[in-house]
Write a structure and sequence with these properties.
The protein is built from two helices and 23 strands. The radius of gyration is 43 Å and the shape is elongated.
């Protein structure tokens, strides 16, 4: 009988230290080669997302311009509608933060838009495009990592930096939450005493724009002369910008019968009951003609430039037709006749 001897432990072989070190070195070399490639591919994907966002905004702007009645672009990001399925957060009217990575800014003055990709608070790169021009603008941050160094050159339609394609504007995200209570205090404007307040607070600059100006129609507390229905000289008062009714209970003293006076703008005479004045029907002064005891009309009525006007003269029978010229005055047949004192009630413009 033969008994087979088992192999001793000394006969088993493992990896040598040299083999292990070589394997580790190979893995390290492969990692060193693949990591930058992987990082660049990730960064290129981020850049492609930014460019796609710009294309979406540009198409929306072109569509809005073509369909608006006055040919304008959208200036308020909230009016663009949803751009992605990600979280979107507006800052003011010009800025939109998307998925906490991309920052879209509209530049109304230059008809263009920016998209900036950030890591935390650090800008990595910015793309821009105009709504009316072809090509992209691209800029990377001054301290860009190696994987972002070739971002701009990886796109074939780059026509300049982000600022040369779309002129720079203030970043709406800067100091967004840093406006102080003191800055938010509205400038004083005495609106209770007739001043108009147009102030508006700008979040992006923590400042107020607008003016405080005097209302030109403000007449609060003032009084002016008027004539009531009895023909007496009266006054009316103003509250705010509104004039009240002519005071009907003013100047109750009686006039002397037959006394010359006036009713409104017309020559008048004291009524028989001495309660006030009434017009002399048919009378006229330098500027007004009295049509009845209670109404008067302005003399020298003029039509619009180039329109004919039929005028009846003082004797009530004759009339002339002439044309008013803006530069020459009244022209036409007998244009010198009836230059004063005609019956304005019978004046009619063509």
């Amino acid at each position: 009988m033969f008994i087979r001897k088992g192999k001793s432990l000394k006969s088993k072989k493992g990896f040598t230290l040299t083999e292990v070190l070589v394997t580790v070195i190979i893995i390290g070399v492969l990692a060193a080669i693949s990591y930058p490639v992987f990082s660049k591919s990730i960064m290129k994907a981020r850049a492609t997302e930014a460019v796609n966002l710009l294309e979406i905004v540009k198409n929306k702007q072109i569509h809005h311009y073509a369909n608006s009645s006055n040919g304008t672009y959208i200036t308020d990001v909230s009016k663009l509608g949803k751009l992605t399925n990600s979280k979107e957060e507006a800052a003011g009217t010009t800025g939109l933060k998307i998925n906490d990575k991309y920052y879209l800014t509209l530049n109304d003055a230059n008809s263009c838009a920016y998209v900036t990709y950030k890591k935390g608070d650090k800008d990595i790169f910015t793309f821009s495009t105009g709504y009316e021009t072809a090509g992209l603008g691209c800029s990377k941050s001054a301290g860009a990592d190696s994987e972002t160094a070739e971002i701009c050159s990886s796109f074939g339609d780059i026509s300049g930096s982000s600022n040369s394609v779309c002129a720079p504007m203030p970043d709406p995200w800067e100091d967004r939450h840093e406006c102080t209570d003191e800055q938010r205090v509205k400038p004083a404007c005495d609106t209770a005493n007739g001043y108009i307040d147009t102030y508006q607070f700008v979040e992006t600059s923590c400042s107020w724009i607008g003016t405080c100006t005097k209302n030109p129609n403000w007449c609060d507390g003032q009084t002016r002369a008027c004539t009531n229905d009895a023909g007496r000289a009266c006054t009316q008062s103003c509250t705010g910008v509104s004039w009240g009714a002519c005071n009907i209970n003013c100047d109750m003293s009686e006039c002397s019968e037959g006394e010359e006076g006036s009713f409104g703008n017309c020559p008048g005479i004291c009524k028989s009951d001495r309660s006030g004045f009434e017009c002399k029907v048919g009378a006229k002064n330098e500027n007004y003609w009295c049509e009845s005891a209670t109404s008067c009309k302005a003399l020298y009525k003029q039509c619009l430039s180039g329109a004919e006007q039929r005028q009846t003269c003082d004797d009530g029978d004759n009339y002339i037709t002439r044309t008013y010229d803006l530069y020459k005055g009244w022209v036409g047949a007998n244009s010198e006749d009836c230059n004063s004192g005609f019956d304005t009630a019978n004046c009619k413009c063509a």
